[in-house]
Design goal:
Neuraminidase; about 40% strand; mainly beta; globular; 4-stranded antiparallel β-sheet; about 0% helix; about 350 residues; single chain
């Protein structure tokens, strides 16, 4: 078992400014905010081991995890599927090389679980969709009758919107890198919604909030990291949100989660930080507040999973700093964040 310094202060309600001892990008535009969070480390490491870059979802009243990097695979991709009745105690469900992937997505749609895309150990993309009604028996979805442009692409996101299954992805179309949107009524027949959603970027996160879609952050080659937000009411037309001057730094490998009528943006990476420490939140996507209750030894996190589960935000695994501003290592810790 690895001994890894906790990311957060445990089971406390904390109300003081974060202090950084190193000159990295810790979002220095701190502001006092009237919020109280109870942050609890549920486990340092459990049956699932240390893990990152997996995909997770709540399905059939359980938390499910598929693939990703695992300590059981010596830091390589695991073929395992796990589930948990409480988010802490885990059981292995099935092992199959078909699940040996990173950056895939899991989405519940029409009472079935869809595993979409991802890449293998060498970086080759899976342009396939698997589905299951029980998490045990999986079948590949035939997408042959989809639009000619349809592809799952690279570092996509999938979600349910207006009773349809959606994929937002990046692809090369007519000599240009674009952000494309596809949707399907059944997970098999995919139609092109748009091939020009918003300016190109990879690995933005997408949330559905107040009946709108929001694409947050991302990265392009260079690298250039973005803190811009784009919104859409239909998945076709997107416009940039005019955010306030105090907003999070550009990033990728972060998470955005809807919880308690707010969107919460946690962690990630950018040019000067291999893993960011911060939590930002907004109730309108325009005005963003930095939660400032961390101590100077708080550790950054990226490539984690985040779920709204049991009336709290749960953070699962990821790459955790070994010391503030230092390198990262795969962690098995599971954190619960609850607004008081």
């Amino acid at each position: 078992m690895h001994t890894i310094k906790p990311l957060f202060i445990l089971a406390l309600t904390i109300h003081f400014f974060i202090a950084c001892t190193n000159d990295d990008d810790r979002d220095k535009t701190n502001k006092t905010v009237d919020i109280s969070l109870t942050i609890t480390k549920e486990t340092q490491q459990d049956q699932i081991g240390d893990f990152a870059e997996n995909t997770m979802v709540i399905f059939d009243d359980k938390v499910w995890s598929v693939g990703g990097v695992s300590s059981y695979a010596a830091g390589h991709l695991t073929p395992m599927i796990w589930n948990s009745n409480d988010g802490v105690t885990w059981s292995s469900v099935i092992s199959n090389d078909a699940f040996k992937r990173r950056k895939s997505t899991l989405t519940v749609f029409n009472n079935e679980l869809f595993l979409i895309g991802g890449s293998n150990e060498s970086g080759a993309l899976y342009n396939t969709i698997l589905k299951t009604s029980d998490g045990i028996t999986w079948s590949e979805v035939d997408t042959a009758d989809s639009s000619t442009e349809f592809t799952i692409g690279y570092k996509h996101r999938s979600f349910v919107f207006n009773d349809m299954l959606y994929i937002v992805t990046t692809l090369h179309h007519d000599g240009t890198d674009v952000v494309a949107v596809f949707n399907s009524p059944n997970g098999a027949n995919w139609s092109t919604v748009t091939l020009n959603a918003f300016p190109y970027r990879e690995d933005c996160d997408i949330v559905l909030f107040h009946n709108k879609l929001y694409a947050i952050g991302g990265v392009t080659t260079g690298p250039t990291f973005y803190n811009s937000i784009y919104e859409s009411t239909d998945g076709i037309s997107w416009s940039e949100v005019n955010t306030s001057s105090s907003v999070f730094s550009g990033r990728w490998n972060h998470t955005a989660t809807v919880y308690n009528n707010k969107v919460w943006l946690i962690g990630g990476q950018n040019t000067t930080s291999i893993a960011l420490t911060d939590i930002w939140y907004s109730n309108d996507m325009i005005n963003w507040n930095l939660y400032d209750g961390f101590t100077a030894d708080a550790l950054g996190l990226s490539h984690h999973a985040a779920l709204n589960y049991k009336d709290a935000i749960w953070l699962f695994g990821g790459y955790l700093e070994t010391e503030p501003g230092g390198t990262t290592a795969v962690t098995g810790q599971i954190i619960r964040i609850k607004e008081d």
